[in-house]
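User: Can you predict the 3D structure for this chain?
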Amino acid sequence: MTIPSQFDAKAAEQKWYDYWMENNYFHSVPDSRKPYTIVIPPPNVTGVLHMGHMLNNTIQDVLIRRARLKGFNACWVPGTDHASIATEAKVVDKLKKEGINKNDLTREEFLKHAWEWTDKYGGVILDQLKKLGASCDWQRTKFTMDDDMTASVIKSFVDLYNKGLIYRGYRMVNWDPEAKTTLSDEEVNYEERQGKLYHIRYQVEGNEEYITIATTRPETILGDTAICINPNDERYTHLKGKKAIVPIANRIIPVIFDEYVDMEFGTGCLKVTPAHDVNDKELGDRHNLEIIDIFNEDATLNSYGLHYEGKDRFEVRDAIAKELEEKGFLVKTEVHVNKVGTSERTKAVIEPRLSDQWFLKMEGLAKPAIKAVLESDEVKLYPSRFNNTYRHWMENIRDWNISRQLWWGQQIPAYYFGDGKEDFVVAETKEKALELAKAKTGNSSLTADSLKQDPDALDTWFSSWLWPMAVFGGILNPENEEFKYYYPTNDLVTGPDILFFWVARMIVAGYEYTGEKPFSNVYLTGLVRDKQRRKMSKSLGNSPDPLDLIEKFGADGVRTGLLLSASAGNDIMFDEELCSQGRAFANKIWNAFRLIKGWEVSDAIPQPEHSKMAIEWYEAKLQKTLAEIEDHFEKYRISDALMAIYKLVWDDFCSWFLEMIKPGYQQPVDKATYEKAIEMLESNLKLLHPFMPFLTEEIWQYITERSADEALIIAKWPELKSFDEKIISEFETASEVISNIRSIRKDKNIPFKDAIALKVVNNENTAATFDSIISKLGNISSLDYVTEAVSGALAFRVGSNEYFIPVAGAVNVEEEIAKLTAELEYNKGFLKSVQAKLSNEKFVSSAPEKVVAMERQKEADALAKIATIEQSLLSLK
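Assistant: Here is the predicted structure, written as structure tokens:
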């Protein structure tokens, strides 16, 4: 079989992914093996692959491929989320471009368009994940709007309602005027923005006195129903029982007193707009104030907005400020920075709004989830610093607003049969709802047409919080074989930004429905940022297309580049150079494989001593690295695990092992050494496979012809065995000796083809284990142990051992002495400057610890260098 001179990543990726799919390696069914299960964080059905997905799914693939190699029944369930707000917005925009207004459609007509959109664009991201090498069980692909998934959500709602945990309430909610839906508190991001503080005069009814209030939202004065003052504020006690006139609206409102008001903020007087501020609503409830809602659902002003009706709130803000100024009501404006709530999905500024919504009581549900993470360690977060974030959220949890004013999503299974607040029933089907309505009203003549289903949809997260259970049918049929086999799942890989949105809620749901955790470990990835630490975004133009990167560097190169710098929870400063490094690593491995396969093999020659020792050392080194890798995986240090493999393969295998066993020019290699080299290469490929699946499968299949049940993807992970730490330590000394010999050859222009002698004063009683390798890699004609320094030689030290290379005739001794003398003086001067710095008490006590440590290292290096030069000078004189 002819081996190409270069690894063709593109051809290999298509070939081996097709091969894996054809042989059904990704599919899992329950059997006698221990399961290892991951559920994918379902991306938006209309989404496309970005760098965050690349990182997240590469880590998941590493975990699942390793589990497969370790003999687990590995099951990685893929799927997508219907993403109510984002998807409905895309469909509405598409319809708008076609001249269709959503409001002119029935729900059924709109949903038809939404399904067409989903069928056309949905799942693109899953196909893109295949380019990355994701070994998901595609036969198990789920969508949160699948019939069985929807049935699970509806059953869950009905169950929680019947337990008294879901209720309908008239509350102040977060309103997204762009998506025209309410949002939960967690879907609102707060950001500091510079605005203005407007000081506005309200005339006291019946006299010429004015009350000045300060507000950031002058447009809302049209909804004012009171002015509130702290009862302890002596400046305004004379206003008790008085009323004021709202500017422009000319409406009479009471002056009320409540200790809620901060006397130090602004003028100490507060305008109260109960329909548009949660705190004002509480004040309004306490003082029985009128509620005036001035906004339409799109945040334009309604009829209460008078001559501003139909105009956008921000347009009105500027216009009303101008009118207030013209009419003498605006005292002054000031620059003011405050926190503004924005929609996590649409980025629109949130409007507080009163409306009837469905809520889930969370305080009691949260308790088992708090215990699981913060007390019993049943669920572990990596890195553990996120425990504090989790604690803050969960111990301050509020009831969850689970209704959304959308059509795309699971429709709330509440059915109304009258106009009263309690004139509804909750049921999984309309037929069951009719039964319940008849029983509740005592009216047997009710028909299905008498019932009207709540038009709202459920929050998308109310669907995805059931994900680890619902994908295995655990809500509809908790006794089914698959759910009992695969649940609880093992690991979850996701971003910290949805730790509360999704992770915490899945833990809550798991304990509520099964009494068990949904997963054991949560690996929280960092954000992928650019070199300037900016978050990647389309608007900044700093986010590369992952598919373009794969095209340029190969999937293995991109995966490796990303993971080499991706420690749990820490942001990645992405640079294409990382992918270039990954590709270079792939090329290094490919060339090492070609080198081995290019050797002529002979079974007629004995195995050299240096090859025996090289094999013994590398087997020990492999085992030591394997132990480190296992420890890294156990602690979810995926980046460290890859780095350990990287060093093993690049440094130990390619740079040392192959050099040690490589036959002489145009000479054959003995069969025993060759077979061991292949065996070691195959072990390396197994360790590398989770990270670089395409390259490793390609090499694995090139090594020898293999049947389908011998593919690398289902091979056996190397077994951890005891190893000789001593031989590893002895090689470290030998490798340092070899490096010194090579440096001297290079510095003194002694060609490698010219054999040299080596004399050793073995002060440390170092074993001669690797002498044959020192001789081979240093081209040493004779290696002799002596008891004293050798004259007329170049010298170096390793530890306290002294090594001498006689150079009489090979170099000009006088010139070498002059050169070494100058070098010695330079190093002594350098040492003096370093020691002067270290003797400065002020520097040592005030400089950062790392800086001081660096100076101490410089001192140690200079002392060692001086000792070596002095030894060489003594030997040459």
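The chain is about 45% helix and 15% strand. The domain at 181-351 is CATH 3.90.740.10 (Isoleucyl-tRNA Synthetase; domain 2).
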